[in-house]
Amino acid sequence: MRPNIPAAILATLAREHGTPLWCYDATVIRERIAQLKGFDVIRFAQKACSNLSILRLMREEGVQVDAVSLGEIERALLAGYSPKGEPAGVVLTCDLLDRATLQRAVELGIEVNVGSIDMLTQLGQASPGHRVWLRINPGFGHGHSQKTNTGGENSKHGIWHSQLHDAVAVIREYGLVLVGLHMHIGSGVDYSHLEEVCGAMVGAVRELGCDLEAISAGGGLSIPYRDGDPVVDIPRYAELWNQARRDIEGIVKHPVRLELEPGRFLVAESGCLLSEVRASKDVGNNHFILVDAGFNDLMRPSMYGSFHGMSLLDAAGNPSTAPQRPTVVAGPLCESGDVFTQHDGGLVAPRALPAAQVGDLLLIHDTGAYGASMSSNYNSRPLLPEVLVDGDDVRLIRRRQPLADLLALEQF
Ligand code: LLP
């Protein structure tokens, strides 16, 4: 069972902090970081899980960070990252620069990974000499869902590959400094296209003929959400990218840094969502259990039809030994799509789970990435507490949002 936190501890945490509750295992995060040591720089895509304590853990482990918004920049700074340095502690990768973010990026001198020529021009006008990356849309992309495919002509991301010369002209016009080229073709990628991606990066450097310090392979590394899902071959992945880096060094005639920008891979398997079974009912042929977490907490099944493993602890905190039965797991929201078992394209895809009693704990696994960070206050539900377990050190790293917070900004 992932994460490797003993069931008894999870049950105690649920009692202490109430449910629903996010729980992360620091050991799993450190293991994943260690697996990526074949890259010069690991840059955590904090959108996957942006809690300050997780960011601090990353920093302590020598991982740099990526930010996509003003809020994520401020999080990185609070976690102790510096925008300066080579490699920079923080890089801003966004699709557009809203005015407040542009101003802060200029003030901090933060490297910006640029996704359009307009963005590049705005940055050049506001801050001549700024350090920039160019995010390339190579004309193709892949992802676990159409919604996480970030390449090709249906994607809003990056500068279309045939317009890179125009981008370089803008760089020259404003005396901007090109730090590197970046390519992130999607999230939850299958690796059959890896050689094509590396080839596109080398081709872009050759065609542009300009100098650079670094390349970034983006993120996208998948994890096995289901038993039997392919496990990414990290050594092969690192070797192909290192070969691309060597080819590029041959072109620019000096060492080039290789960066990787994973989110999911580093944190997904460290996390689980603890919820309490509050009701069960038979609806025609379907057996439902209703838990106290909803899609406002964990959006992935409703948004992408994503599969997450589940397990059940009985009221005493022991893994349930009850006989299994096909079960639909749903939440409390006033929406029919508030169902956690809806993979295989169906709204309700019953799953074999031990027969549940009211009061049992349902664990939803592999929710460390794009779990808490995608939560919302829909149905006026507060954001959940988060706990980080690091061996014997168990810490509440975010309190449950008080209901008063939800109302504090509103006025009659
Ligand atoms: N770099 C860039 C520029 C990205 O846009 C992303 C993810 C990453 C890195 C990290 O990708 P990862 O290694 O985590 O796959 N909410 C979706 C995933 C959306 C990812 C958006 N960008 C999900 O729950 O699957």
TrEMBL record:
It catalyses: meso-2,6-diaminopimelate + H(+) = L-lysine + CO2. Substrate binds at R264, R300, Y304, E335, Y370. The modification N6-(pyridoxal phosphate)lysine is found at K47. Keywords: Amino-acid biosynthesis, Decarboxylase, Lyase, Lysine biosynthesis, Pyridoxal phosphate. One of its GO terms (molecular function) is diaminopimelate decarboxylase activity. Pyridoxal 5'-phosphate binds at G220, E261, P262, G263, R264, Y370. Residues 41-268 form the Orn/DAP/Arg decarboxylase 2 N-terminal domain. Its cofactor is pyridoxal 5'-phosphate. Its EC number is 4.1.1.20. It is an enzyme of class 4 (lyase). Pathway: Amino-acid biosynthesis; L-lysine biosynthesis via DAP pathway; L-lysine from DL-2,6-diaminopimelate: step 1/1. PROSITE patterns: ODR_DC_2_1 (PS00878), ODR_DC_2_2 (PS00879). Homodimer. Specifically catalyzes the decarboxylation of meso-diaminopimelate (meso-DAP) to L-lysine. Belongs to the Orn/Lys/Arg decarboxylase class-II family. LysA subfamily. This is Diaminopimelate decarboxylase. It comes from Metapseudomonas resinovorans (Pseudomonas resinovorans). The gene is lysA.
